[in-house]
Design brief:
Chain lengths: 252, 318
């Protein structure tokens, strides 16, 4: 009855001597919100980078919808329906907010090797870009230069651009980082809405947010998966409480 | 600059250029022809530097190939017809750009600069050391390409004025072609590549393909400029592809303003007029010239209204 959308098998990544991801074998179920938590440097971003093709694994395999995508480049992986947002804001700073969404939406044309008709005549791309702006709550900031927007707004745009590529699986790397509480609530609400018809892999330090929307939880420490299971299972896990949640409490 | 002002200024400039031969002497028409050819060459480079974010230091290779193709087709195959010679020049430049680009775009930043320079030097030395094509003396062309209908040449390119209009027409067509391309989906992708290549890739675009096509378009237009220069000046030699020539093109793009299509035209006027005017002031004019280029590179980005270019960018998609 379970339906796996993404599976990693003994996925590893070394940076010189450092093993940033160490034999990560995980199952992600279709339609669920699967959060990945862990202390700084645990290898969460590295894992996302491997899944999105930004990094080439040192070892192991990745299956998406049963297809081996292990060594595919990011553009191919994106075209298969995996979208990602970045922890470190990664937008087109010299473009307006709308243009950022536009370029993202245009990526779903069969090809952008089109030289003659003006891009603005493409109604579908236009609608998609507008809709994305609306979704991520930036309609009122449409024509503002991305570099002139507040940090929180840039974070929202970061998510918007990912959505404009119409992914079925979303890889979200700390979407709430650096947002004010008002913006955070909006984004959590957006994620909740998206989770109805998307699969989400969510990295987040904000535990309240994690516990409020995640169904599955994986804890990573030092590149390894410490524990994975339902939110309830993790809450009650002895090992996690010692290693991670304990640390978290001391820190706050 | 609001769009309407820009359009009006461009139209005024175009009208001036169109009517210039009616008033100017043939010497100045010749000078203007040289400037417009250089402008076309620099405009093609701006597609790479100003729009795609590829700083090529070997763009003169394609300029030279365009010229050499014309000369070689004449020398080896007695081609004198425009409809044969021009496509041949464009195809030769495009093919060279395809090969050079295919290898070069795999690198970026300083390595891209180095590798494009190295390719241009290879072409330079190939012609420099080929006795068949005149070595460093190059090839002289004692004719202008003709376009025959029946037994009449309808272009008469041996008239200075007609050649001028042919060049002006090529420049305007290239300008319009590039404007169209930049407004099309392709143009959106390459400007995005310049802004943030990594994200473009993450959004699902095969970045290298877009860079390569941009490189080939730029190389082909540089070939067109080289064809015109060869036909106009009546000879072609290896210095067409020297790194000086590539460097001049970069200087023009920087002086005129990267990322606008009219910038390189303005830049070409500035460079040629400086080169013709400064030597009359001082023997050390090269020093002065270098100083001017350096000051512009340093200070222009600060004084230019920052909103100007971004405004134009934004207004294109809307
Ligand atoms: N490109 C790289 N080269 C070398 N080391 C890297 C690279 N990327 C990450 N690392 C290292 O790998 C380890 C895991 O980093 P990663 O960014 O995946 O952690 P993280 O769990 O996302 O941490 P955070 O919560 O701070 O975002 C860190 O020690 C980091 O320094
Ligand atoms: Mg991280």
């Amino acid at each position: 009855m379970t339906d796996t959308i993404l599976r990693t098998d003994r996925l590893s990544k070394n940076f010189g001597g450092l093993i940033a991801a160490n034999n990560v074998s995980l199952n992600f179920e279709r339609g669920q919100v699967h959060a990945i938590i862990g202390p700084n440097g645990a290898g969460k971003t590295t894992l996302i980078n491997l899944l999105s093709g930004d990094l080439l694994p040192s070892d192991g395999t990745i299956l998406f919808n049963g297809k081996n995508i292990t060594s595919l480049p990011p553009d191919k992986i994106s075209q298969l329906g995996i979208g990602r947002s970045y922890q470190k804001t990664n937008i087109f700073a010299t473009f307006s907010c709308y243009e950022n969404c536009w370029v993202a939406a245009q990526s779903r044309l069969n090809t952008s090797m089109r030289f003659f008709r003006p891009a603005k005549k493409l109604k579908k791309v236009q609608d998609r870009a507008e809709m994305t702006l609306d979704l991520c709550g930036l309609s009122s900031r449409r024509d503002v230069l991305a570099s002139a927007m507040s940090y929180g707004e840039q974070r929202q745009l970061e998510i918007g651009m990912m959505l404009a590529t119409e992914p079925e699986l979303l890889l979200l790397d700390e979407p709430l980082a650096g947002m004010g509480s008002e913006e955070s609530l909006q984004v959590i609400e957006l994620l909740r809405r998206l989770s109805r018809d998307h699969t989400l892999i969510l990295i987040e330090h904000d535990m309240d947010a994690v516990f409020s929307i995640a169904e599955q939880l994986t804890v990573m420490v030092n590149g390894r998966v410490l524990e994975t299971g339902t939110v309830e299972q993790i809450r009650n896990s002895q090992a996690v409480q010692e290693v991670y949640l304990g640390v978290e409490e001391e820190a706050t | 600059m609001p769009r309407i002002t820009r359009t009006l200024l461009l139209l005024a400039a175009l009208l001036t250029l169109v009517f210039f031969p009616l008033f100017g002497s043939s010497f100045y028409v010749g000078l203007l022809t040289r400037i417009l050819i250089l402008a076309l060459f620099a405009m093609s480079l701006d597609l790479l530097i100003g729009y795609t974010g590829l700083v090529s230091f070997g763009h003169a290779a394609f300029f030279g190939i365009g010229g050499y193709a014309l000369a070689i087709a004449f020398q080896d195959a007695a081609v004198i017809h425009l409809w044969q010679a021009l496509p041949l020049s464009l195809a030769a430049a495009a093919l060279a750009a395809l090969v050079v680009g295919w290898i070069s775009i795999r690198t970026s930043g300083i390595y891209f600069i180095m590798i494009t320079l190295a390719f241009a030097q290879m072409f330079f030395y190939f012609f420099f050391e080929s006795p068949r094509y005149g070595g460093d003396d190059g090839i002289f062309l004692f004719f202008k390409p003709v376009l025959m209908i029946g037994s009449a040449d309808i272009l008469h390119l041996d008239s200075e004025n007609n050649f001028y209009y042919f060049v002006l027409g090529s420049l305007v067509s290239s300008y319009l072609l590039l404007t169209m391309i930049l407004r099309a989906p392709f143009g959106k992708v390459i400007t995005a590549i310049k802004a943030n290549e990594h994200r473009v890739c993450a959004l699902g675009y095969a970045v290298n393909r877009y860079k390569l096509v941009s490189f080939v378009i730029a190389g082909t237009l540089a070939g067109l400029a080289g064809f015109l220069e060869g036909a106009h000046s009546g000879y072609i030699n290896p210095s067409y592809m020297s790194w000086h020539e590539s460097g001049i093109a970069i200087a023009i793009v920087v002086l005129g303003g990267m990322g606008t299509l009219y910038g390189p035209i303005v830049g070409a006027f500035i460079i040629v007029l400086l080169q013709d005017f400064l030597p009359s002031l001082t023997d050390h004019w090269q020093l002065l010239f270098g100083g001017i280029v350096i000051s512009v590179a340093l200070f222009y980005p600060m004084v230019r209204p920052a909103c100007c270019r971004d405004f134009m960018r934004c207004s294109e998609v809307k």
